[in-house]
Structures are given as C-alpha cells and as structure tokens.
Amino acid sequence: xxxxxxxxxxxxxxxxxxxxxxxxxxxxxxxxxxxxxxxxxxxxxxxxxxxxxxxxxxxxxxxxxxxxxxxxxxxxxxxxxxxxxxxxxxxxxxxxxxxxxxxxxxxxxxxxxxxxxxxxxxxxxxxxxxxxxxxxxxxxxxxxxxxxxxxxxxxxxxxxxxxxxxxxxxxxxxxxxxxxxxxxxxxxxxxxxxxxxxxxxxxxxxxxxxxxxxxxxxxxxxxxxxxxxxxxxxxxxxxxxxxx
Length: 244
Fold this sequence. Notes:
Elements: E1 12-16, H1 20-31, E2 36-40, H2 51-54, E3 64-67, E4 70-73, H3 75-86, H4 101-129, H5 135-158, H6 169-178, H7 181-185, H8 193-203, H9 206-211, H10 221-235
Parallel strand pairs: 1-2
Antiparallel strand pairs: 1-3, 3-4
Helix pairs in contact: 1-3, 1-6, 4-5, 4-6, 5-8
Protein name: Glutathione S-transferase
Family: Belongs to the GST superfamily.
Keywords: Transferase
C-alpha cells in the first residue's frame, strides 16, 4: 500500500497527542517550516488502536506520520525521515559526510530512544499514573533517570548541543522528555546547570513554542501540572503493590 517514492512538495499529516514523543515531531516540522496537518488522536479512548490508524502504524502508538503515500512510525524514524528528505541545508541535522557531527547526532538520538525515553517513561508511570503504588518501581526508574540526566549534563558541559555546535534532532528528541520532568517527576533542572542552560535556550525558540501548542488543547501547562501533583498526592496513599 505504501511506496518509497519521493515528492519534492510535502503532503504531511501528523497523527499526534500531547506526549513527549509526539512533541518531537511537531518541533521538527516547525523548525523546518514544513506545511503539515495535525490530526489529534484521543488516547483516552484508545483511538490509536483503531484499524484505520493501525494501517499507518501497526504498533498502535503515537506519533505517526504520512507523507503522500509513505507512512513513517516511531519518533526516531520520523525525525530521520524528515531531515533526510527535507533538511538539505542542515538546519536541524548533520549530514553523513559531516563527521563527527553526524555520528554524534545518531549516537545521542539512539541514547534518547533506547535509554532516556524508556526509563523516564517508566518513571512517569510509576510516580504519577500507576493504579497502585510500587516503591520498587518508583525507586528503580527515577534513580536510573537521574543517572541519565547526569550523563546528559556532563555532555552539555562539554558541548553547547548534544552533537556539537548545532541544534539537531538529537536535542529535539531529548528536550521533549526533559521538559516534562519538573511536572511529572518533581525534578529541579537547576540540579544540572548545563541541562538548565540548554533547556532554557531551546524553550525560547519560536518554532518550539509553536510546536508545543500542537495539537491544540483546552488545558494549560499549569493546569496539567496541578492534575499531576494531585495524582501524585493520591498515589502516596495507595496500598503497596505485591510484586512477588
């Protein structure tokens, strides 16, 4: 059904929600100034599992992107697709011939995809969304997330951006998760001065500010933070899970 034919003019639809992985793609699209249609997907009703969307993403997850008759799923694959096809100037990427920048970009992108995202995602689950309290889960995943933040801070002490002197998809992927940690994990980014500097610089970019409003939502960031804080307060009173 889907071909790999390239088209000089994008015809992009982003199937998305207000999640870190989805924000990666809206940020990249805004940074590249690409025209696209955002289709909000309702996670609370499991719309991402409906047959029509499984045609685009067999894994039933977000984000998912279509461009003409090409489908792309998994946020890392979508980021690579966008820069390979629509970023010849290297606005948010290094090119394969630009080593070591390109290899650094790939390394840090995979670090986020295989490490920071999964570990912080589990930390979010156990600290704010789990149906029962698990001290083991909270300790295991918040400790590992903190270790990964130490790794990130060390890198950003050495370099203005993850891959070098250029803002790239590696920064976009990682920022989309780091920005969620104060609300969901009560992390104070000031504990990691280099991360704080890097985070604030990215947050001030106009394209990033536009992207974080996609898809549109009736709830503000402050309202979301209060909802999460209430969930965390309730969680502290839940019965310890039997993990045997």
